[in-house]
Amino acid sequence: MTSAAERQRTREPIPREIQVLIVAAFIIALGFGLIAPILPQYAVSFDVGAAAASVIVSIFAFTRLIFAPVAGTLTARLGEPKVYVSGVSLVALSTLLCAAVQDYTQLLIARGLGGFGSTMFTISAMALIARLAPDNARGRISGYYAGAFLLGNVTGPVLGTLLAPFGMRLPFLIYGIALIIAAAVVYVMLARRREPLPEAEGRTTEPAAVEVLTTREALSSSTYRAALASGFSYGWLAFGIRTSMVPLFALAVFGEDLGPKVAGISLSVFALGNGAALLFSGRLTDRIGRRTPVIVGMLILLAGIVAMGYFTSLPWFIALSILAGFGGGILGPAQQAAVADVIGAGRNGGKALAGFQMFTDLGAIIGPLIAGAMADALSYQVALSASGAVCLIGVVAWLFVPARPVPAQKV
């Protein structure tokens, strides 16, 4: 049983610096949820077809992927707060440009620029959390951070609906201004400060003296290698298949009238299931370790996505969407906390986190492409089942990982 001292440590207050990042995460996700539903329609308004509109969505993930190594290197050299503020500011500029563009090409360039900024603040935020979070609270803090994003993503579309009568450019303008405010808050609280950031173990370290964890050192850890595998699987299923194939499958099963509504409901209840799991999954992984939550969460996510292809009544479709979201909510904090464990307190893990982010984005990009081709050539059932089979690598890899990882060592 857990001792009183251990229970007290799990209730340690979250460092102020991480609280700032959690608030900023909510603002960023709120704005993203504001523009995400209208982005394809906005692209179509420039007289392009559905394929070109989908490229506007994909270019963001593509630039995140190709610029992740650059963002990791910048985080290692300049420190997390400066890269975070620069990344958020770049996304703000990109979003404001989206509000002002006059043609499709300009919109494509603006969104691509935002992808670079997104990977900058994502990697630097994860690196800062890994460096500052107490060892026995990484799962809890990862859950709070994911929950802030989830709450913003759920609230954003609701506000977007209220703004719909005012045109499609206004949400981009509001999001851009909100990002400027978020960047300013983080700059004042973290990036501008002259004293060094407090470390997780009560130390203080000058930015130039922070030890940098290299990708080679991270790869020496079985935990990190497993996290790359599960990150790829998570990106394939939770980001790629859920946001592209599931809506198309709903359209094919329920028709043009009901299909779009079912797809929207599916995405919403996935978020509900995700949020329900996040209420306890962070604390759970701090108590029992990372391996079991990752394996169980991945299996639940995988089972929910695959079963959608075979249980196609509306009640089943909704129930399986909730189940898949619940699995993702169990998996997410444990996976992120495991990478933070590999980095270890007091070290800059920007390069290692860049690799992890690249594998997640890679799964999100190629998953829909392969599954889409299989759906066209064979069937949606085959496509979803094959996706589940491929993503079992995220389960198998974790079978060979210690329940409680240790920081990667010098090699």
Molecular structure report:
There is one protein chain. This protein is mostly helical and 411 residues long. It has two domains: 13-207, MFS general substrate transporter like domains (Growth Hormone, Chain: A); 210-402, Up-down Bundle (Growth Hormone, Chain: A). The protein contains 15 helices and two strands. A two-stranded parallel sheet has the order 1-2.
CATH topology of the largest domain: Growth Hormone, Chain: A
Q: How would you classify the helix and strand content by structural class?
A: mainly alpha
**Share in helix:** over 70%
Indicate the low-confidence ranges by residue numbers.
1-10, 199-208
- Order of H and E elements: HHHHHHHHEHHHHEHHH
The first-level CATH class of the largest domain is given as Mainly Alpha
Task: Specify the overall morphology.
Answer: globular
Q: How many strand elements?
A: 2
Give, in spatial order, the strands making up the sheet with the most strands: 1-2
CATH architecture of the largest domain: Up-down Bundle
- Assigned CATH superfamily of the largest domain: MFS general substrate transporter like domains
Q: So how many helices? A: 15
The whole-number mean of residue pLDDT values reads 82
Number of domains as seen in the coordinates: 2
Strand content: under 5%
What separation lies between the terminal Cα atoms?
Answer: 37 Å
The largest β sheet comes out as: 2 strands, parallel
C-alpha Rg (nearest Å): 21 Å
